[in-house]
């Protein structure tokens, strides 16, 4: 499965679950890669972070509902699209469109351009153009390297679990010291992402992370002699 197909799958998942909490771990599973790598390929193809994309889509769909359902309270629309309060929704709406939800409804949405679902017709170009203008060969100092060797049809799906757990090992201890308990994996992923803690464990002195993937080769052991 190529990167375009993987991100298409995550975009479809976002659309199907736009009114529910969307977990980054679930999205990375759809893309068959680790959370940090998913961030990079999503940004390369879509042109923005996955968090920004989800926020823009939620606000745009909520804006449509402000007009299509004029009797529905703004606070109910805010809750429907996973905003914690009407104040949070209003601030996000104002920042995105330069107008409050109430003003948008009173003006019947005139003059505001909403954000549509990402169109993949030019996705391949977005991922490549402008990325290879400064190709260089750089000699690096010796360093420790972490790698994972996976076997199978989709080894990346197998690889991201131990790699992500390894990356978050220090974050898990920091979480425990701050909150006095160890979190569930999804909770830890969200907290680590918000605090920029996707880093190799400091105690091991690893400076580079590499995932090594190898296809599985099936040997025929039932050959008969002539």
Order of helices and strands: HHHHHHHHEEHHHEE
Low-confidence stretches: 123-133, 203-226
Largest sheet: 2 strands, parallel
Percent strand equals under 5%
Rounded mean pLDDT score: 77
Structural class: mainly alpha
Biggest sheet strand line-up: 1-3
Beta-strand segment tally: 4
What does this structure look like?
- It is a single chain.
- The chain has 226 residues and is mainly α.
- It has helices at 3-16, 24-30, 35-46, 50-68, 74-80, 86-97, 101-106, 123-128, 155-167, 169-179, 185-194; strands at residues 145-146, 149-150, 208-209, 212-213.
- The protein is globular.
- Residues 123-133 and 203-226 have low confidence and may be disordered.
Write the layout of secondary structure elements.
Blueprint: H1 3-16, H2 24-30, H3 35-46, H4 50-68, H5 74-80, H6 86-97, H7 101-106, H8 123-128, E1 145-146, E2 149-150, H9 155-167, H10 169-179, H11 185-194, E3 208-209, E4 212-213
Parallel strand pairs: 1-3, 2-4
């Amino acid at each position: 499965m190529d990167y375009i197909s993987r991100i298409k799958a995550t975009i479809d998942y976002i659309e199907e679950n736009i009114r529910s909490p969307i977990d980054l771990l679930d999205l990375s599973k759809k893309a068959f890669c680790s959370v940090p790598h998913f961030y990079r390929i999503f940004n390369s193809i879509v042109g923005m972070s996955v968090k920004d994309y989800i926020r823009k889509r939620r606000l745009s769909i909520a804006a449509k509902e402000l007009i299509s359902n004029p009797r529905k309270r703004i606070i109910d629309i805010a809750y429907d699209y996973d905003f914690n309060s009407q104040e949070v929704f209003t601030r996000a709406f104002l920042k995105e469109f330069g107008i409050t939800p109430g003003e948008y409804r009173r003006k019947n949405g005139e003059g505001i351009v909403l954000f549509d679902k990402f169109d993949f017709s030019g996705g391949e170009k977005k991922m490549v153009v402008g990325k290879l203008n400064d190709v260089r060969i750089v000699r690096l100092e010796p360093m420790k390297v972490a790698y994972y060797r996976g076997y199978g049809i989709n080894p990346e799906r197998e690889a991201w679990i131990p790699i992500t757990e390894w990356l978050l090992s220090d974050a898990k201890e920091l979480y425990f010291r701050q909150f006095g308990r160890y979190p569930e994996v999804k909770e830890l992923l969200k907290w680590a992402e918000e605090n920029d803690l996707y880093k190799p464990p400091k105690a091991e002195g690893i400076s580079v992370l590499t995932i090594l993937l190898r296809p599985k080769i099936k040997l025929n052991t039932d050959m008969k002699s002539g």
